[in-house]
Structures are given as C-alpha cells and as structure tokens.
C-alpha cells in the first residue's frame, strides 16, 4: 500500500499548509481548549475542509485500506441474515465496530500516528524557519481580479475577495514592533525601511495593526506610502488593502475609508495626474494603472460588504457611505463629450462596474437604502450629473456622424471579444458614464424617497427636469432608428437601446413605480411613435375624417421624417417594454384607456388601438404601403403577444373586439399551415448540383414556418381565457387544433407564456364548461389521460413496477394526491352541457367481470367502476374498494349539485335505487344500517338528491361521525327507501296571502297608471325603494301581481323577439312525449312546491301540460342544426327550471303561468332567464346557434368576470389560482334559477328584479353573491377545494335587499356596457 502524500517531506508540507489555512480559526479561539474543540469540529464548520491536500490524501488512504474489509463485513452480515429489524443504525454500528477492531485498521492507524508525530516534531523544531519569515507559498498579485463582466486589462487571475494570500507570522506583534513599523513607514524614511515595514504589515493579520494604539500613525503613513510613485511600495500597499478586505471584521471600514481617502487625494492633487475627458484614458500609464486597480478594489468591496455590514454598528455603514459619496462627488460639473473637463471618479467606476451593481446592491435593503438616500441629499450633484449625462446622450444621438455607434461597438468588444484594451477614447468614457447613470437612476426611481430628488434643476436649463422628461429622453434612445444605421455583427449587451430597454422593463415590473413614473400618455406616445409611423396612411385618413390620432407622425414626437423605417431591433425593444406594461392590471388599463384610465369614456386613439391596428395590418400583410420592408414574423409575433395579453382579459377583449383578431389569426394560421405542409413535402429536382443547399434552406424554412404556426395557435388559444373569447374561438372552427396545442404544452408542464407561469388549468375549466369544448378535450386525449392518472393514484397505473416496500396509504379517504385529481376531474364535469355531451344516451358497460389491471379511459367507464358499484365483479376488481368507491361518491355528490346533471344520471342509470339497495345490504344483525364511511356518503347523496331547498329549507346530514360524543355520534337516521325521514325536512310556515298596504301594491293597483316607459321607470323606483327599506313586505302575491301587470306593458316597449301565435292543439300536446329526465324534474318541482306550501295538492298534470306547451311553442322557433354535438341534436336536454319557477310563483295556476311565459318570450331578458328559450333558436345568429354555447355563459358569464376583475380583484385572482371560473359557477346557479342555493323568497325576488330592473341585474346579483362570499372564497382557495365549496354549499346569509344599493352602484357604472352587450343577442 502506497503512502504517497502521507509520509516524509510531502506530509510535512501538507501539515504546514493546513496550519496556515486554519490560522484564522486558531486566532479566534481564546485558549488552548477552545482551539482544540474548534479543530475537532472543523469538518462541520469549514466549507472547504475536504479540499485540503492532507485531508484528500488521508481519505484516499482510508478508502484504499478499509473499503474491501467493509464490503466483506456487509456481505457477511447479509448472508448470515443477521440484519436487525430495529433499524439500519444497529447494522452500521456493528460493522463499524468490527472494522475498528480489525488488524488492517490497527496497522494503518499505528503507522499513520508515527508518520504524523515525526512530521509535527520537525515542524516544531524549525518553527521560526517554517512559519516566521513567510517562506511558504505566496500568492502572485494582491490585486487579483477575475470577473466575467469586467473589461479592463489585468495580469491577475483571481478575485481579491476570494483568493488565498500570505498569512504571515502566527505570533502577535508586540507594542515595540508596532511602534517600529509605524516609524519605518514615515515618508522621511528611506525606501528600504518603508519596504521592510510594509512586508511586516503583510506578514501579519491586518486586524492586529488596526486594533492597536498605533493605527492612527500607521494609517497616516500608509496614505503617504500609497501616493508614492515607487512600484514596489505601491504593490505592497495595495496588497495590504487586499488582505484586509478578505476578512469580514468591522476593521475593514478603516481600510475602505483609507482607500477612498487616497483616491480623493489623487483627484484633488495639483500634480495633474488625472487626464481630461477629451484626451481619453491610457491604461499603459503606470499612474492610471494604479488608479484603476484601486478603483477595482474599491468596487469589489462595495459589492461584498453588503453581505455582512448589518452585523456591525451603524457607524460602520455610515462611514463607508460617507466616504464613497464624498469620492464620487468630485468633479461633478462635467459637460458633454469634447469639453476640457477632467475625468471624475465615476468615469473610473463606470468602466469597472458599468451597470452600477454597487448602487443596486446598496439600494436593495432598507438598512442601507434609507441612509444612502439621506446622504445623497447632501451629495445631490451625483444625481444631478447622472441626469445631465442621460439627457445629453439622448440629445447627441440625433446628431449626424456622431461617435456613439462607433464607441458602443468597440466598448462591447471589450467584454464579448475578450480583447486586451490599452486606450479608451473620451466618447467611450462618457458612454460608460451614461450606462452607469441610467442604471443608477433606474434604481433610484424604484423607491419613493428616490423619486423625491425630482424635479431636478440643471444649469443653463429653462425648466427643471421631471421624471417624465427624463423617461421620455430615455425612450428616445430606444425608438430612434439612427442607432441602427450601422451593421451589427452580433448581439451587443452594451448597445444603448438594449440597456435602456432593460431599465424600462425593470421599472415596469414594479407596478406601483410604473404607475407613478411610466404610465403617462406622453411617454407612451413617444414609445409607440415607430409603430405609429407604419400607420401614417391610416392616420392621415383619420385626420381627414376629423378623428384624433394617437402618436401620429406629425405630432410632437415625430422622429422619423429624415430616417428610414424603424428597424426590427427597435420594434422588438418597444414590444418588450409594452409587453412588460401589459403584464400588470394597471399597465393594461393604461394601454387601453390612457392616462385618465376612464373605461367609460373610451377612445380609439389609445395605445391598445394603435398596437391592435398595427398587428392586424401586419398579419394581413397590409403594411408597409410605401414599398419598404415589412415587419418580420418575430416583430408581428411580439406585438400579437401584447394583443393577447389584453384580449385574454374581459376588459381587453371588450376594447379589441372590433378588430376581430380571432378571425385574422385563423386566416393567417391556415395559410401558414398550408405553407408548412408544402415545405415538408420533398419534390424531385432536375438540377441536383445544388440539392444540398436547397434542402438545408428548405428545412430551415420549414422550421420557421412551424414555429410561426405554433405562435399563431398559441395566441389564438388564449381567447379561451374568457367566456366570450371562448365563443369567438369556437366560431373560428379552430377549437380542436388549439386544444391539441394546449394539451401538448400542458403535458410537458410548460408555462403559459413569458409573463404567465400558470393558467392552463383555468383555461381547461373554461373550455370544459361548453359542449364543443368537452368534445375538443376528448379528442386531444386529455380526458383519457386524466382518468388514467387518477386511476394510477387510486388503484394502479399502466406501468406499475414491483415495490420492495409498499407505499403508505392515507387514513383519509381523499388524501392530498387524490384530492388534486378529483379537483381536475370536477373542473371538467362541472357544467351540464359538457356532462351531457359525454354521458347522454351512453349506457354503462356493466361487464360480468373486470380485470385487476383494467384501467378506465372514459367518463362512462369512471362512472361504471367507481360510482355505480352494483355488482360483486366491480367490487372485487378494486384493490382499494372503500377508498376508491368513496372517491367516486364524492365526485357524484358534487356532480348532482347541478340539478340537470342529477336528472340525467338518475334517468339513465337510476343511481338512487343503486345507493338505496347498497344501504339496505349494509346492516347488522339488528337490521340497523352500519355506520361506516360508505354508508355516510351514500346517505348524504340520497338526502341531497331527494330534497330541494335553500339554506333554511332543507337539512343535509354530515359525512363524518362526531368522535367527541360517546353516544349518539351520528344523530341523523340512515334509511334504505324513500321518502327521506322527517329529520331532514325543516318545518316551513305557510305563505301569507294577506295584502298589506305598501307603495308597490298601491302603484300596481292604481286605476289610472302611467303608460309605457313612464310606468316602467316609476315601477323600478318603487321596487328598488321597497327592496331596500321594506323587503319583508314583498310577499309572493305582490310579486305575482307585479309580473302579471308588468309583462304586458314591458312586452310592448322592450320586445326583442316577435310574439308568435301558439298553434298547439290538445292532440299535438298529447303526441308530445316528455323525456324521463323531464318527468323526474316535474316530480322534484312538485315536491318542492308542496314543501314550500305554495301549492296544496298534486298538480303534476298541470305542470306537465305547461312544459309541453312551452316545448311545443319553442319548437316553432327552432330549426334543425347540422352538428356533431349531442347537445344540439334534439330539443333542450335539461329541465325547464324557469317555467317550473313561474308555475310555483303563480301557485300552480296553469293559465296564468302560460300567459306570462307567452308574453315574456318577447323580451330580451327571456333569453337569459328562460334557458330553453334560445336553444337552437332561429332568432340567434347561425354561428352562435351552432356553437352550442349558451348566451347565459358567453354574455352573462363574461360580464360577471369583467366586473370581478375591476371591482373584486381578490375574488377574480382566487378563482384563477383555483383553476375554476366565475362564469362556470354563475352559469350553474342561473341555469337552475338558484334552486338549492337561495331560499324561495330570494328566488322570486331575483326573477322580479331581472325582469323589472333590467337583465343586467343578473350580472350584478352574481357579483353581489361573490362579494358576499369573498371571505369563504379566499379560505377555500387556500385549502384548494373552491369548486367543491361553491357547488355543495348553499348561499347562506345572502339577501338581495342587503345588496340592492351595491347593485344600483354597479348599474350606474356598467349599464351602458353590459346592458347593450346582453341585448345585442340577436345580432351576428
């Protein structure tokens, strides 16, 4: 066995180096015992412990000597089967003990001790020779500097803050030695004496001198040494500074202030060593090299000290800040390029740290920021001069033949090319100053106290410089096309427009800062001026028509008369900035409405309109018209992305709807698709000599077209973010392709866009709320994948591997992993149209046997395997029957909260009978139903599906046992046959029919009422006052009278649909058969009416007759639709909940109910309250009718989301984060007229409110409900079960009267927008 590195001279060198490197730890120890304890635990505390040569050689030796022995011991224990089951630690300890007692270990240990003893004794014997005179290896240069972002010439290879330097003597100098060092450093002593003194300084810890009483004298003499022209003294003094900066002790403050004082002296010296700006900077000059190295040390310390200065007293940071700003304030009166002024310290620091990282780090924490900004008030010229440089640079870029392009090129080559530079021209120095100033001011503007420096008064300036004026000047650097007149060989990280774009994007990322600084019309006008140039033809046309033009070329910011069309880089920079603005809510509103942010006073001259016009025309190839080059696909894609950021919100879609971007994108996408198909099809060529080049070119072209195609699909897909946008997407016919694209990205876990990490889950839910959306999701394979992943969590996966250790099972039926999949499944099964599409007319498989590894792939399979578990074969096919069946019942419970879904499932699968049968079988010897997880779930579902009622009209049993009770842990009776026990049915008093005097009653009974609109206006006033002040007087009979009197009047003044004559006969009605779903719905409605006591006997025949009349009447206004959607194949698939509600409101009176519904059908509000009214209706535009998307979803749902985003942003965000949409839950509530969610009185008031006050109150009411539930919504967003809460829980505590004032305030703000949108239902 070799002992290389662990014996002889090698071992001695390794131990010597170890001692030297551990010197700081030894010095920090107060005595021998502490030092010993520190060294014992060094491996735990020293980050680089294993990098030391001695440690590496020792580890190698142990591995070499003991590894075979350890492996033999492990194998021996394994073969003997002696592994203790009590834990792995017992086995490890046994093997360790066996190895320690082995002969190889004892031999190695004995020999290692002998070698170590010999080496240590020799080191102690020659201690002075080994450690006293610095004979061990020294580092090369103390001014080591190696950072990728710097671009100065240097011979060093390491950073001064992370290198190893000569650690010197291990003995502390005494007072005589300190006095001697101080005396020898005096400027009157000869060079040799001062050199010896500096060597002594560098052989000891700097702290030993700084903490001594002689430091003031040493410091003064050190300052003299640093100013000496002698190279050796310069080198030693900078080495001392470097070594001092390597520590994190508070004494570094003294060294930093010393260095700053030295630099201040250099700039204030009369020797004239500082060159003038116009003469440039020659790095080969020794004096300049010395200054550059000093500044580099200063800057490195500035960036490192932020990591630990909070540990020390306030004096530490205050002295550092004061000395820094004192230095940087020198020569702060410099003028433009070409003047005779001297270089300032900031010119030097700008070369070393052009992006002002020192300032950015100092501004990061409040601890330093507060003090820095306070001191900057004292040294205000630093900020003033930074502003001056920015303004001068912006103005000078307009000059012909200026040097900016030249030196921006050469300056960039310093870093990118890695070439050695020896000279910097004055223009380059000023450009570096400009970059430094931009980053400094950009950081300053991010903070309130930083913005207080503005406005700034400049000499020779008529007006002070405001933040707006400064930012406009910076924007000009970006948008001025003159900066792109020279060719660019590569991307330049120090190109001015790129740097300014970066700063502006940083400002935009701080929404509050951007709102204060950037969201100004003047700035936006300047920013979009190149885009406006492309639209100059349209601008001139608009001018001739008298329309105000935003950012027009001949306005204040007309920069392009003498220049070519702005280049691609300019347009992309602008797009980057605007995209960052559009990523925030306030930024989007600024783009859409301008500085006033008045959405109700919209103008077509806002930034959003300019961008949309440009994007549309660019997509269609209509710009430019002057023969110049058209925008590239990259540019068009960037501006299309900005439009997407706008139209994927409800507000943005409202603004951009007029441009029909969805149709334009589809048109361009289809052309790209055809071109892509042609590009990938090889064709034979007669001339094969250039085949290789043509093939490569064609291949690259094909890739570009494919990327462009994906870009268009991606932007088209984002219309699905809102309800109305989803309708537009469906009408384009590209729903399936977009869903395929989304699923491909969703499967790869890709984020939605560069500004949105999440959102596909929300989009899937929005899409799945509609029948065509569900079909598209099925075709992509999303549903199959969802079911398979769910099955893998509950039961088994398709590629399960054998496990040596079984996975742990949660004690909860729905654990965290399965809960996530349940929410995903419920999101796509939330809406009745989607459920109808996947389940209608589809029988259950009900196989005689199922395989253990047979995985369901469809929703029907899922229902068959986990919900309708009605056979032994299904039970035995489940590995975890109780948990999996409970999961299925939980899903069923949420699904049947939608009454139409309940009726569909019951009419097709009779799940109630299945659950009742299962309850009957689950009994003990006393014939009592056993309390277990499944019986409680079944009981809850049976009660929920049988009883109808609001929060106070029915009692739902819990799904768990109260374990705190010793007896009667479950106080509700279980049952195995209907009807449900009385314990679940609260007693409801009869409805009062006594007429009470009130304003509304008097108004409706007036003998000479007003006519037409005057009557309606008075009725609205009386009704609203009554709802606010006396809602309890609004009884059922009064609301019935209101409808009877009001509808004939309203049908004459607000008719939207024609009043067709009813042609049904008794024989025709008898021939009309109601579906089983309709029959079950009638039973439920009658049962609810009897429970409410609004009807007093079984009036099933009347309700059946009314529904047949309605169905026949509506069929007269329907036309057959050629569609693949099951939902559109026949008459309305759900139950007519509105007709049933009116029937109960009129006390079961068939004639009154029919008369009301017949006249009501002419009103526009009938399309939203009476859902079957517009099913396949001839009154709808054909594309809307064929879409299979109800106006209740696309219009009401969209407008609800619009108001939420503006009025209740927290609620809107909670829905977004939960992956559930407000439109979907409101569609659910409204479709069934709030049955099961509100009490009967509130339901009646809802109907009257929407009819009398206007159908837009349907939107305001839903917003009020969500406002009422805001606290609960936020809580359930945190627990990730928002969809379960909103669907299963009634809206308790909500009364329309309490929110009437709020709804009226919404009416004042939004009626013009929402009411007009909802009544435009018949227009294409």
UniProtKB/TrEMBL annotation:
TM stretches of this protein: none
Name of one Pfam family that matches: BROMI_C
Sequence ranges assigned to domain BROMI C-terminal Rab TBC-like in this UniProt record: 895-1321
Sections of the chain in a coiled coil: none
Residues covered by the BROMI middle region domain: 176-877
Subcellular location: Cell projection, Cilium; Cytoplasm
Biological processes per GO annotation: non-motile cilium assembly
UniProtKB keywords: Cell projection, Cilium, Cytoplasm, Developmental protein
Gene Ontology cellular component annotations, sorted alphabetically: cilium; cytoplasm
Organism domain of life: Eukaryota
Domain BROMI N-terminal: 12-129
Cross-referenced InterPro entries: BROMI_C, BROMI_M, BROMI_N, PHAF1/BROMI, Rab-GAP_TBC_sf
Gene3D superfamilies: Ypt/Rab-GAP domain of gyp1p, domain 3
Function of the protein: Required for high-level Shh responses in the developing neural tube. Together with CDK20, controls the structure of the primary cilium by coordinating assembly of the ciliary membrane and axoneme, allowing GLI2 to be properly activated in response to Shh signaling.
Name used for this protein in its record: Protein broad-minded
